[in-house]
Structure to design on (255 residues):
C-alpha cells in the first residue's frame, strides 16, 4: 500500500516540468492523479507516462483563469474517480520580459499573472473543498515561490501573486481546518527544470549551485516528494505552512 493509496489528487499545471514530476511521484505513492492544464496534449502525454509506469492518471482540460473550466475539471475527476482528496495548484504563468516593475508593467500582464497564480488557486479550492469536506477532509498544496518572501526589483506581478498565494493558503488553513482540510504552500527555490536547463546559461547555473548551502540546484522531484508528503496522512498536523524547498538558499541570504 502506497502512502496515498486510493487518494484522488487534482493537479493543475501538470503538463510540464515540476507538474510532470509531481504527477509521477503522486501516482507512484498510489494516488489517482487528475492532470488539468491548458496544454492538453502535453497533459495527455504525462497521463500516459504515469499509466505506462503502472500508475493511475487522467488528463482533463483546465484553464484555471476560467471558473467554468475549473468547475468542469472538478466534475471530470468526480465522474472518473468519485471523490477528491487533495488539490495541488501548481499551474503558474509569468513572463520574464513582460513582468517588469511597478512603473512599467502592462496591467493586462499583471492581471494574467494574478488570475493564473492566485485567483486560479481560489477557484480550484472553492470548487474542490465541498467535495473534500463531504468525505471528512483533504489536503491542499499551493506551489508558491521563494520570491514570495523577499523583495525583488523586477517580476512585480509574480512576486505579488505568490505572496498572496501564501496568504490564501493561511486563510484556507484557518477557515477549513475544522472541516479536516489542511492547506500548505511550497516555496521552491531555483529548480533545474527542462525549461530552465534550456534557457539559463550554464555559468549562472554553476554559480547558483555553488552558492547553495546544499551544494546543488533543485530538481523537480525535490518539489514532487514534498507534495506527496503534504498530501499524505503523515502530514496530518501540518497546516497553514509555507515551506521553502530550496536547499537552504534563502536562509543563507544568497540572491
Ligand atoms: N521552476 C522553478 O525554478 C520554480 C521556482 C519557484 C516556483 N516555481 C513554481 O512551481 C510551479 C511549477 O513550475 P514549472 O517551472 O514547472 O512551471 P512550467 O511553466 O513549466 O509549468 C506551468 C504549467 O502551468 C500550465 N498553465 C499555465 N497557465 C495555465 C492556466 N491558465 N490553467 C492551467 N494550466 C496553466 C502550463 O501549461 C504549464 O504546464 C509554478 O507554480 C511555479 O511558479 C517554479
Amino acid at each position: 500500500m502506497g502512502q496515498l493509496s486510493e487518494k484522488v489528487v487534482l493537479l493543475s499545471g501538470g503538463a510540464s516540468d515540476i507538474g510532470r514530476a509531481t504527477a509521477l511521484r503522486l501516482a507512484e505513492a498510489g494516488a489517482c492523479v487528475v492532470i488539468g492544464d491548458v496544454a492538453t496534449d502535453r497533459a495527455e502525454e504525462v497521463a500516459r507516462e504515469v499509466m505506462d509506469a503502472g500508475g493511475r492518471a487522467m488528463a482533463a482540460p483546465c484553464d484555471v483563469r476560467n471558473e467554468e473550466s475549473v468547475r468542469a475539471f472538478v466534475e471530470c475527476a468526480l465522474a472518473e474517480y468519485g471523490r477528491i482528496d487533495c488539490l495541488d495548484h501548481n499551474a503558474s504563468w509569468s513572463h520574464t520580459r513582460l513582468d517588469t516593475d511597478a512603473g512599467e508593467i502592462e496591467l493586462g500582464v499583471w492581471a494574467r499573472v494574478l488570475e493564473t497564480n492566485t485567483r486560479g488557486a481560489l477557484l480550484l479550492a472553492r470548487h474542490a473543498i465541498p467535495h473534500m469536506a463531504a468525505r471528512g477532509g483533504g489536503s491542499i498544496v499551493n506551489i508558491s515561490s521563494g520570491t514570495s518572501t523577499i523583495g525583488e526589483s523586477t517580476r512585480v506581478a509574480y512576486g505579488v501573486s505568490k505572496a498572496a498565494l501564501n496568504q490564501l493558503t493561511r486563510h484556507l488553513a484557518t477557515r477549513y481546518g475544522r472541516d479536516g482540510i489542511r492547506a500548505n504552500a511550497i516555496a521552491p527555490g531555483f529548480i533545474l527544470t527542462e525549461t530552465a536547463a534550456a534557457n539559463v546559461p550554464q555559468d549562472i547555473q554553476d554559480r547558483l549551485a555553488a552558492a547553495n548551502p546544499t551544494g546543488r540546484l533543485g530538481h523537480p522531484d525535490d518539489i514532487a516528494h514534498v507534495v506527496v508528503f503534504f498530501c499524505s496522512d503523515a502530514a496530518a498536523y501540518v497546516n497553514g505552512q509555507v515551506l521553502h524547498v530550496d536547499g537552504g538558499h534563502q536562509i543563507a541570504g544568497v540572491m
